[in-house]
Amino acid sequence: MLPVLRSALFFLWMVVTVIPIAIVAMTLSIFVRGEPVYRVCMFFLRLCILGAKHICGVHYRVQGMERLPSGEDKLAPLILCPKHQSTWETFAFPTLMSHPLAYVFKRELLYIPFFGWSMARLDMIHIDRGRRTQAWAKVASQGRELLSRGVWVIMFPEGTRIPRGQRGEYKSGAARLAVTTGAPVVPIAVTSARCWPRKSFVLRPGVIDVSIGTPIPSEGRKPEELMRQVEAWIESEMQRLDPEAYRSAGR
Q: What is the dihedral of CA 125, 127, 133, 139, to 10 degrees?
């Protein structure tokens, strides 16, 4: 019963904090765009991650951060491809990375009061999944422009949240963008379903592992081949990080 009460308090915390922060972000976006508005929105995400930690006991540890570009190279184009198990990583990654990220996400999220409205004021790539050709054209054009400005693009290759211990279908969109732009791809394993499973209201105490792989060059590669390499690394790393889940799933 305690995890349910804590989770209820956590979601109340998110509602109470998102409204004033979204109002500030939307008001600020009237006068400036880009990183200032992003930083305001990221403040809300930090509060969410802190709330999950202190209210629900959800901690995390990160390995491999040193594999990402830093110093003069940190503005080099990069495409992040994380495992997607939970809402947690969508909140966490902007707080973990050294500079702004641009998510590729379904446009329906823009309709969420306050949260979605503020997202609409950010440099993100929102697409209509029902129009695949137009969606890819938007990802390619906006992705190229954002990467040229040093913004890292983040795409979940499985497209949706996947149950713990399972593997979704890895789509080649991120690899296509990488090959088109010449940007390296970074595979990332995340065990967030250990604490916050998809479609679950209840967050459970524990530790989420985030493991960042070595950037994979995209020059001269075929998208499908590149994505197979990303998939192989992520799924192998997931079994190393969360062997209990994969044994339970019979894998």
A: 10
Quote the tokens at residue 117. Answer: 């409205």
Taking a C-beta distance cutoff of 8 angstroms, is the pair 212, 65 a contact? Answer: yes
pLDDT of residue 70: 77
**Average pLDDT rounded to a whole number, residues 145-173:** 94
pLDDT band at 33, cuts 50/70/90?
Answer: confident
**pLDDT of residue 110 exceeding 60:** yes
Q: Do the Cβ atoms of 40 and 90 come closer than 8 Å?
A: no
Q: What is the pLDDT of residue 211?
A: 98
Nearest C-alpha neighbor of 95 from the set 46, 163, 31, 138 = 46
Give dist(CA 83, CA 162) in Å, integer: 8
Q: What is the 3-state secondary structure (H, E, C) of the chain?
A: CHHHHHHHHHHHHHHHHHHHHHHHHHHHCCCCCCHHHHHHHHHHHHHHHHHHHHHHCEEEEEECHHHCCCHHHCCCCCEEEECCCCCHHHHHHHHHCCCCEEEEEEHHHHHCCCHHHHHCCCCCEEECCCCHHHHHHHHHHHHHHHHHCCCEEECCCCCCCCCCCCCCCCCCHHHHHHHHHCCCEEEEEECHHHCCCCCCCCCCCEEEEEEECCCECCCCCCHHHHHHHHHHHHHHHHHHHCHHHHHHCCC
| pLDDT tier for residue 66 given thresholds of 50, 70 and 90 | very high
Structure tokens at 50: 């802190």
Please tell me the distance from the alpha carbon of residue 190 to that of residue 210, in angstroms, as a whole number. Answer: 5
